[in-house]
Amino acid sequence: MIYFYLSELVTGLRHSRFASFITMFTLFVSILITSAILFLFFYSQKIERKIKEQVVIRVFIDDAVTGSKVNDLRNTIRKNEFVKRVEYISKDRAAEIFTNKTGENFLEVLDENPLPATFNIRLNGEKITKTNIERVVKSLTNLDGITDYDYDYSLSMKLIEMLKSGNYIFYGVSLVFLLFSIYMVYTTNRLVIENKIVEYNNMKLVGATITSIKIPLYLQGILLGLLAAVLASGVIYFGFSFVGKLHLLKRISFMGVRNVIFPFFFCVGALYGLAGGYFATRRITLNVNLNK
Predict the structure, then answer these.
(1) Looking at 114-118, 178-182, 198-202, which range is the least confident one?
(2) Burial code of 147-164, b = ≥16 C-beta within 10 A, e = fewer?
(3) Contacts with 142 (C-beta within 8 Å, 6 or more apart), sequence order
(4) How much is the pTM?
(5) How far apart are alpha carbons 239 and 216 in whole angstroms?
(6) With contact defined as beta carbons under 8 Å apart, do 30 and 180 qualify?
(7) E strand map for the chain
(8) Quick one: which of 45, 75, 232, 255 has the most CB atoms within 10 Å?
């Protein structure tokens, strides 16, 4: 029986070579897009948190605050639940940074350093939001010993909004390709059914079961999905290898990604192919089609 299923599978692919190729390519694109959607779904919160934590609130310290008072002020800021990290920049360090950036040493013409000491504050990306950012900044900058502050959160919020909007667009595109992929498998199998309708009628007349007709079509959809998964795996493999040579993804473990995404490709490809085969064979019965 297995030999029969395989021979029917090969015959079906041979009779619909062009349609099978288009179906496989559509499945390939759909697998990649679905993977990208799932990546964004699971990592979008992490990406959003990282964007928020890149924002630096620079608060300027009164010159009268020195020694242990600086440590006391830093500890007070650290106790704030919205603060993730605090970095102290002394007046001398601020002058050194200024000189390195501009190439000019203002201490050669001034008697004293006019730059204030600062705290560079990074916020907790998991707790900070667009609605509470102003309140948090106000609570930090109203502390005794803080004279002024500087930060720009608007760009980060714009990036986050763009990320969310992009997610919705990706979701829509993924759904379209999912439905189109299943439809292409459905169409390919319907083409096979139409080309072999006389053979199917003869099989029914000699007592063939419904599964002996449907299973080869299921297998055809699954095979096309698996071939698309192989193609998608190859693209990802060589893509990561190329990017790795450019040292653009030093922090990403390809082995870790491969262990997750490659099995996912094959599962999704087989599932899409099986779904198309199922819908294509729903109307097949043991009744003989007398029109053929």
Answers:
(1) 198-202
(2) eebebebeebeeebeeee
(3) none
(4) 0.57
(5) 34
(6) yes
(7) 56-61, 83-89, 118-123, 146-150
(8) 232
